[in-house]
Amino acid sequence: MRRNLITAVLYTVVTTVLFGLVYPFVVTGLAQVLFHDKANGQLLYAGGQLVGSRLIGQSFTAPQYFHSRPSEAGIGYDAANSSGSNLGPTNKKLIDRVAGDVAALQVDHPGANVPIDLVTASGSGLDPHITPAAAEFQVARVARERRLSEDAVRRLVAQHTEGRQLGFLGESRVNVLMLNLDLDQAAPAQR
To answer: Member of which family (predicted)?
Structure first.
C-alpha cells in the first residue's frame, strides 16, 4: 500500500512538472521564436502607439471610417467578455435592434439591401472582419467624408480583401481596423 502511494505521488509530481511547467515553457519559447507576431496577438501600431490587434474588432462610429459589425461582447469588443447575444431569430429584442440598425443604415442608401453582417454580431462578438459586400455598402459614405473618389476607396477595400483560407475555407473578408488605418494614411480624416 505504501509503495503504491509513493508511486502515485511521484507520478503526480513528475507529470505536473513535465506537463505543467516544462511543456508550456517549451511551446511558448518555440512560438516566440517561430511565430513571434502571432504568439503576441498580432498587435498593430500606428505612430509608435498601440492601436489594436488584427484579431479583435473595434467599434468605429465616425462617418469617415468603415464600420465594423455590431458586438455583443461586454460593452463592445471586450475580449474579457467574449460572447454573442444568445438571442434567437424570433426574439423581439433582437428583431427590434436589427430593424433599427437597418433603418439607420438605409439613411444613406434608401431601400437598399443591407449586408447581414452590418446588423448582426458574430458568435464571439470580437470579429474584426466584414464581408466585401458590407465594405462596398459603405464606400460612398467613406469616400464622401474623406473627399476621395469612390474608385480610390474601392481600390483600398480590394487591397484589404482577404480570400478564403487555403483557397476553400470560409469566405472572403475585409479587416476593418487594417483598412481604416490605411485609409488614415491615404487621406487623413477631416475633423
So the answer is: Belongs to the KdpC family.
Q: 189 falls in which pLDDT band (50, 70, 90)?
A: low
**Residue among 94, 157, 169 nearest 129 (CA):** 157
Q: Is the dihedral angle over the CA atoms 138, 128, 92, 115 positive or is it negative?
A: positive
Nearest residue to 138 (alpha-carbon basis) of 65, 190, 58, 191: 65
Averaged pLDDT, 31-44:
82
Cα within 13 Å of Cα(67), Cβ side: 22
Q: What is the pLDDT of residue 39?
A: 78
The chain-wide mean pLDDT, for the chain, equals: 88
State how far the Cα of 93 lies from the Cα of 98, in Å rounded to an integer: 9
Dist CA 70 CA 122 (whole Å): 8
Cell of 128: 474584426
Pairing between β-strand 129-130 and β-strand 43-46 as defined by DSSP bridges: unpaired
DSSP letter, residue 144: H
Count of CB atoms situated within 10 Å of the CB of 70: 21
The residues, any chain, with a CB within 8 Å of residue 159's CB and separated by 6 or more, are 182
Quote the CA–CA distance of 122 and 134 in Å, as a whole number. 14
Dump pLDDT digits (tens) for 131-157. Answer: 999 999 999 999 999 999 999 999 999
